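Q&A log
Question type: sequence-to-structure
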Amino acid sequence: MTRFLAQTLRAADWAVGHRDEVRSILERETRAGGDAVASAYRDDFHTALAPDLSEQRLALFEQQKNFQLAHGFLDRDVDVRAWADDRPLAAARALLENRVRLAA
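Response status: OK
Response body:
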């Protein structure tokens, strides 16, 4: 899990400086044209791809959970904030920082 999250963080860091390349990837993945991808993924979308457990992301996740609960996709309610665990992300960040230190 830690290595997967570390790679996800690396990819998000890469995406910050490669908006056009990210859009090209999205075109291939979604099989949508460039105009459709540009319309769906606007502004600085490529700068906010890193996973995190910020209050904003947890609130969005809670909205998704509430939708799924209301429409019968979940059997019971769950406390998103109690469920969220920052330790795997913290371990992934530490792994990346260690790699940077070793490479320097």
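Response note: The two ends are 25 Å apart (CA to CA).
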